[in-house]
Amino acid sequence: MEKNLTPQSQSSLGFFGIIRESLKTTSRNGKLLLPTLLLVFLASSQLDFAQKYILAPVAKDFVFQLAKHPNMVHDLTYNIDQTTYVGALDDVREILLVKLLILVISSVISLVFLVATVSSSSEAYTAKVLSRKDMFLKIKASWKRPLVTSFYMILLTFGIISLYLISIGVTSILAVNSWAVVFFGAITLSIPVCYFYVAALWMVSVVVSVLEEDFVGVKAIGRAAELMKGKKLQASLMMVLFAMFYGVVHMMANCVTSHNLSQSTRMAITIPFTNGLFSLLKLFMFVVFTVFYHERKTSHDEKEGKGFYLPIAAADQA
């Protein structure tokens, strides 16, 4: 049941407070999140198995073509005797088409996963109960908004990458004194900082676009940047934390594949293992940034003198 409460002191949940509140929200919302997590895990695993089995013979044939024609890359680069390499070119086209299809299907799965998790977690955080029917309706009503916002974030990311490449290129050409070297070092060191900030901005932007109907695309990105004021470091550190966990999962998967196992055995172990942990990490990341959004929105509303909802945990303590 929804609880209307009078505003209290400004929200001040720190880094670990956000994580702790996210765990509570996930626990309260388990009846919806667990089936969603299971469906995403099964869909992602089946997709990976299908990709491996479809591409395995194609990749094997392409390697055979490379061994048979060691000068193939050189000849294709200079348009020399391409008819000889029709089989290899067909393999490349098939690989690219399968990869593109897998990318599209994976993006659809991630989009539905995002909208379902953010919508249900937002309701759970504000002390409401969302039924499966309501969740489906929310997915149907809001899936376009995070898709459009992600498109604009991709454009922004490419713009930033282009700016970095231009800066590095110009600095490399002009690197004739110590100041140029220092500038080049500063650019290099700023890359991971910018990466994690943009990743956090992207996450907050899509959360905004899911939860606020009037904010989509550039408007959602602007809204996210406004909410992140004063908490950019906190949001970026949360992305660093998830990146570290993703790295640990990759290392664990590599440890498994390093053993002398057959290809089918490695696939049977690593695909469910990595997909299960990646799906769980992604779900918790969505919940964390949903809680972060509500905390920042509460703080922003307090500054403007608006009312707000406290999370159910805070309501229970009142």
From TrEMBL:
<protein>
    <recommendedName>
        <fullName>Transmembrane protein</fullName>
    </recommendedName>
</protein>
<feature type="transmembrane region" description="Helical">
    <location>
        <begin position="100"/>
        <end position="126"/>
    </location>
</feature>
<feature type="transmembrane region" description="Helical">
    <location>
        <begin position="233"/>
        <end position="253"/>
    </location>
</feature>
<feature type="transmembrane region" description="Helical">
    <location>
        <begin position="179"/>
        <end position="212"/>
    </location>
</feature>
<keyword id="KW-0472">Membrane</keyword>
<feature type="transmembrane region" description="Helical">
    <location>
        <begin position="273"/>
        <end position="293"/>
    </location>
</feature>
<keyword id="KW-1133">Transmembrane helix</keyword>
<feature type="transmembrane region" description="Helical">
    <location>
        <begin position="147"/>
        <end position="167"/>
    </location>
</feature>
<keyword id="KW-0812">Transmembrane</keyword>
